[in-house]
Amino acid sequence: MAMSTMIHNHLPTTLNAGANRVPVICAHQQFVHDHHPKAKLSNSGARLVESLSHLLHLHIEPPSRKNNVPHDQFPNWDLFIEEKHNTPTISPKEVISDKWRDLHGSMDWDNLLDPLHPWLRREIVKYGEFAQATYDSFDFDSFSEYCGSCHYNKNKLFEKLGLDKNGYKVTKYIYAMSHIEMPQWLQRSNVMETWSKDSNWMGYVAVSDDEETRRIGRRDIVVAWRHEWYEDFQRNLEPIGMGDSKVEHGFLSIYASKSESTRYNKSSASEQVMKEVRKLVKFYEGRGEQVSLTITGHSLGGALALLNAYEAAAIFPGLPVSVISFGAPRVGNSAFREELDELGVKTLRVVIKQDLVPRMPGIVFNESLEQFDEITGTLEWIYTHVGTELRLDVSSSPYLKRGFNPLGFHSLETYLHLIDGFLSTNSAFRPDSRRDIALVNKACDMLVDELRIPHFWYQLANKGLVCNQHGRWVKPKRDPEDIPSPIGEACNYALKIEGQESYQIKVV
């Protein structure tokens, strides 16, 4: 059974810290959501949504006439919200160096998820915010000559997004292309010569600084992958590696495609990221340090994270490799899952019960059929999830509306909000959760109206136009240092390692 699903990008990214750009999930190509807060589903669209909910066995709560504010949990709602506004959005950092292997998945997060260990919660949110950064800094404005690139150079990324206190430094940007036809895949300018007609910025590599390394007990290399599109989920499974492992054709195309005629993908996303990881592993292991690799991503980014982990674990036997994904689809067959296990890759899949994307591809033909293996034998053509699941539920939060909201269910900010409030499956939402609740509504309509947070509240001031010295409203020019690298040039940058000698990174 095949299902076509497309995720469109519709809001500009922010020049301010912490804003979000969130995709809209449409359940079918013929069902297009208007993105506007007051948009109404057509009768046919409503029927399709209802059919999908039955097909996927979703429990969709009908929207009530009154928003669902749990006054029994918070009798003085206004006072409670006022106190929230006067609380810091982050907690003091704990030293987790003695427990890092468990938090990194050495025991598959056994006894750490339900109830959720507070140290693990902080780490999951940290990696989720690294994935969110790939949205907040992406230029998808079709009137921009740099549409499809990152707004900032790697040395400014975390500072601009308010992530500089996390203790990591970006060392490399990753670009990707695809050799197969994928509508909505390539973000590029509609009005002028673009920085690249073939490639999009797809993520980055970062590494913990000395202070964070001491806190977490090892030098942590992070790869964060960006999400872009979905269409025709159930493409053919394609072999990967030397065994029976197979993965979805489109995911592999984005990860492995390259062309000498392109500006940014003379090497593939795979080659770019692995070249950087090799440099960092060699450098830090050469200093006698313990090194880990943590790969994160949301939606398609979570799929690319698994492919990246598969490759990295094969190249670096013994290196602790973990994936923390959010709302990710299935990627490959059971042989792919088993090979990841054999390679020692630890995967924590964070999913929201109401989110459609983790149910695809393989809505019907999936790992649930393994119970019939004795009759059918191993089915190499079915899709299978991997790793350990942390399951969240929209209905657990007193701040979120009920009803069917595919955009809100899949938003990474919704995921981070629910993680921040999750204690256990048998506990109420954590009253001392710290993340700013308003972030949930940056690009969707999920928060109850009593919070008085506008729907889809983020947009650039004056929609990105600035007033020049002559009083004319114009598109601003990027700072020269934030313009993607020139055609054909290979620039050498010295990465300053705190207190140590610099080493050269070649940026394509």
UniProtKB/TrEMBL annotation:
Q: Which UniProt keywords apply?
A: Chloroplast, Hydrolase, Lipid degradation, Lipid metabolism, Plastid, Transit peptide
Query: Which Pfam families does the UniProt record give?
Result: Lipase_3 (PF01764)
Q: Which GO terms describe its cellular component?
A: chloroplast
State if Transit peptide is listed as a keyword: yes
Provide the taxonomic classification: Eukaryota, Viridiplantae, Streptophyta, Embryophyta, Tracheophyta
Instruction: Give the top-rank taxon of the lineage listed in the UniProt record for this protein.
Output: Eukaryota
Organism name: Corchorus capsularis
Q: Kindly give the InterPro entries that the UniProt entry links to this protein.
A: AB_hydrolase_fold, Fungal_lipase-type
Family of the protein in this entry: Belongs to the AB hydrolase superfamily. Lipase family.
Q: Name one GO biological process term.
A: lipid catabolic process
Q: Where in the cell is it found?
A: Plastid, Chloroplast
Q: What is this protein called?
A: Lipase, class 3
Chief location of this protein?
Answer: plastid
Positions of the Fungal lipase-type domain: 227-364
Q: Which GO terms describe its molecular function?
A: galactolipase activity; phospholipase A1 activity
